Amino acid sequence: MPATRTTLRRSLAAAAALPLLAVALTACGYGSDAKDDDAKKANVSADGKKLSADTVKIGYFPNLTHATALVGIQEGLIAKELGGTTVKPSTFNAGPEEIEALNAGSIDIGFIGPSPAINGFSKSKGKSLRIIGGSASGGVKLVVNPKKIKSLDQLKGKKIATPQLGNTQDVAFLNWISEKGWKVDAQSGKGDVSVVRTDNKVTPDAYKSGSIDGAWVPEPTASKLVAQGAKVLLDESTLWPEKKFVITNIIVSQKFLTEHPDVVEAVLRGSVNTNAWINANPDKAKASANAALKELSGKELPPEVLDPAWKSIQFIDDPLAATLDTEAKHAVKAGLLDQTDLTGIYDLKPLNKILKAAGKPEVADAGLGVK
User: pTM of this prediction?
Assistant: First the structure.
């Protein structure tokens, strides 16, 4: 598959009539009213200021844990803050692809999990990206075949899927195994538990065929397995303080942040407004995210998958920096990440400026912010 594909391209291909084309363009954040054309040509932002870039390229996954991006673009909430600066969206299937696109300049800002962000920062020796905000917490579960596994201790000797070697869920599961006192070779996945790296798109088929006994996966994959008869054995949120841990961050290339801080601030303001809208209108937001998924993949999620998946995700502005630091330590412990100084991975000044202006509490960087 190509590394990226734009929502606009898919919308144009699917459009059969001019009214549908207009809807597709609106959903992509290209503006919804012809009377705004003059303002858009002038790059006028929502507060009346002209922004420094004509276009901002935003990357994200077609996944419910990226609903801030899905809904923010679908509803035009991010575009509203950008005025005449056009949103150019791209979707990805995995974190490494998105980091590669960020490094190549194919995207400027991305919604992404903590492990790829940590790896991208580490491999570039702290020069490629900054985390500038949070997006979502939770939405990860251990689901198993109840005929084969009835308790956590019975995972020993079983085949459990994670999405990808070294991805956020893979690291979490390896750490959980280690804390149980069991041994698994991180690279091969062989040991007291067989860790089977399986793309989320094929995990339901793997479960159905019996080639795996369960999976430690994000939503909506977990709920897809439950719909096939699997049972939730553990919700990862129960392992974290206050049941919160970062699942999706917002990152930006350092080059774009330096050259276009006003555009970055506008996108962040759109993200904050989107999260507020999601939390105030959960049913509408759930429907909007599902509509975006249908546009991107050609298929919407059925209620038996969508409803439980949506309930397990919290949409928040706080990047939960302390939990990212813990996840990095887990990756080092598993041998999947070299010991890395993460100081400077966060720049939360723009976000805190927005939160303060909105009368909301500021968020912390756990000592990992730009000095």
Answer: 0.84
